[in-house]
Amino acid sequence: MSAAEKLAGKFIVIEGLEGAGKSTAISYIAKWLALQNMPAEQITYTREPGGTELAERMRDIVKMEVQGEDLEDKAELLLMYAARVQLVEHIIKPAQNNQHIVVGDRHNWSSLAYQGGGRGIDLQLIEDIKQVSLGEFNADFTLFLDIDPELGLSRARGRGELDRIERLAIDFFERTRQVFLQLTDAEQKAVKIDASQTPEIVEKAIFKQLDNWLASL
Ligand SMILES: Nc1ncnc2c1ncn2[C@@H]1O[C@H](COP(=O)(O)OP(=O)(O)O)[C@@H](O)[C@H]1O
Ligand SMILES: [Mg+2]
User: Cα dist. 200→25, 61, 103, 204 in Å?
Assistant: First the structure.
């Protein structure tokens, strides 16, 4: 089987804190996929939350600031899963059925890390909501870009003003990072990349991990 045939129908996810370099990593993955002769029209890119019309509206609600009404942590969590269900059912699964490879900028781990680690919602409760929403649907391979939150935020700041979530305290992001690290340790189909390195080194590390994963398929 050719590399492109092996990759067809797979779902790769990039996870990491703000400013870790996820968007940058997607461009490296696109480059790697081209090297595997994966046709560009057979690649679907997603970002979460969002990616369908309704999911994008849910994303807007999560980012919205309303005078006198806080978004409750559990409402935020459920909106994330509502958006994810829309994306998985309307975009990701149909793309996989059409032999696309799907490259996701964030997926399920972000809910465990941010709403669980960051906000402090019980991780088992989030796992239960995941089961109800998505069942056994999971990424085939996850690249976790690990970065010190201070460095990530300083990179993100260079990009413009911080939004409501990005302004939260550094210890929120440190707790978030710890959950990402635990998830990566516990999952065989996931790897950690030291995202504090130069873009050239990060790119090389991503290529190497993708080569190893492809060899295992
Ligand atoms: N390895 C790196 N070293 C230094 N700066 C980086 C690196 N990777 C990305 N950047 C820069 O940091 C900023 C955030 O990167 P980005 O890919 O948008 O992160 P994310 O999508 O995870 O928030 C961008 O300005 C990007 O050019
Ligand atoms: Mg990004």
Answer: 11, 36, 21, 6
Nearest CA to ligand 1 atom 10: 21
pTM over the 0.85 mark? yes
Confirm or reject: Cβ of 27 under 6 Å from ligand 1: no
- Say if residues 75 and 109 touch (Cβ distance below 8 Å): no
Number of domains within the chain: 1
- Where are any strands of DSSP class E within the chain? 11-16, 43-47, 101-105, 141-146, 190-194
Nearest CA to ligand 1 atom 13: 155
- What pLDDT digit, counting tens, does each position of 148-183 carry? 998 998 888 876 666 666 676 788 999 999 999 999
Distances (CA, A) of 151 to 21, 101, 105, 113, 157: 11, 31, 19, 18, 10
Q: Which domain, by its residues, includes 150? A: 3-216
Q: Is 24 in the pocket of ligand 1 (CB under 6 A)?
A: yes
CATH number at residue 12: 3.40.50.300
Residue-wise pLDDT for 114-141, tens only, equals 999 999 999 999 999 999 999 999 999 9
Average model confidence (pLDDT) for the chain? 95
